[in-house]
Amino acid sequence: MSGAVDLSPLKERASAPPPPPPSGGDGAAPGAIAPIVDVTEATFETEVLQRSMQVPVIVDLWATWCEPCKQLSPVLEKLANEADGAWVLAKVDVDANPRIAQAFGVQSVPTVVAIAAGQPLADFQGVQPEPALRQWLDAIRNAVAGKLSGPPGAEPEEQPADPRFEAAEQALENGDFEGAEAAYQLVLNSEPNNTEAQAALRQVRFLARASKIPEDAIERADAAPNDLEAQFTAADAELFAQQPEAAFGRLIEFVRRSAGDERTAARTRLLELFELFDAADPVVVSSRRKLAMALY
């Protein structure tokens, strides 16, 4: 499934009678969001489209006869319960609700689609391992962070500023990349799994390299296709110029035609560049696929 999804027929089906506000589920406190809901054509607008204005809705399109669905659905349900309302799992039986399946262009089950602000963001088909599902869900949540209204009655929590991050940001504003890197590294020394510090450190290291890129970096690299360092610098230049596809393609091509330590180094740098972007970014997804083909 790819491209735009026409959900208007389902809106029309659900418009008579007018839908009530999205329910909190059986036993849920007023205003609370049930982590898992069964969705029909009649409740699609309420439980999926309207709800997705508040939090991401992950639509699990399944069928009773589908064995892979029986493997995937319990994992999604477990993760939805763990999320505690940060996103909602909407389960759709495609045989009982063919118009929903048709609207999403479902060709096989299980198919899983992420919806936010009434629009599909990403999808996949087939069974996925739990770590991959967690990464995919994290990417969805990061993509919509600050763009949805949140659960009913939710008050945004104002987090106190972390002085360690303030020091790093101040160093960055002063053009002191080494100071900013040291500050973020200090956070990671005590909190190795701090994802905010990890992402910031990757950005700082890239900006530090980008500040030293010569104007003719791309021309030099094109003239010396076997010079790994020249390819690294040119890829940074293309990335800094907001041409990620060109940057990724350059390093993928080097991986394709090289071997040994240089091939490993090029692959490692490419993976580092991928991490500067959302994991669900189409250019990253496509480039990961091309890298896999170049390697094997």
Automatic annotation (TrEMBL):
Region (Disordered): 1-32
Gene Ontology BP annotations: response to stress
Listed GO MF terms: protein-disulfide reductase activity
Presence of keyword Transmembrane helix: no
Gene3D superfamilies in alphabetical order: Glutaredoxin, Tetratricopeptide repeat domain
Family: Belongs to the thioredoxin family.
Pfam family, one: TPR_20
CDD domains: ybbN
Domain Thioredoxin residues, every copy: 28-142
Matches recorded under SUPFAM superfamilies: Thioredoxin-like (SSF52833)
Keyword flag Transport: yes
Cited function: Participates in various redox reactions through the reversible oxidation of its active center dithiol to a disulfide and catalyzes dithiol-disulfide exchange reactions.
Chain ranges passing through the membrane: none
Gene Ontology cellular component list: cytoplasm
Name of the protein in question: Tetratricopeptide repeat protein
Taxonomic superkingdom: Bacteria
Family annotation (InterPro entries): Thioredoxin-like_sf, Thioredoxin_CS, Thioredoxin_domain, TPR-like_helical_dom_sf
Residues in coiled coil: none
Keywords: Disulfide bond, Electron transport, Redox-active center, Transport
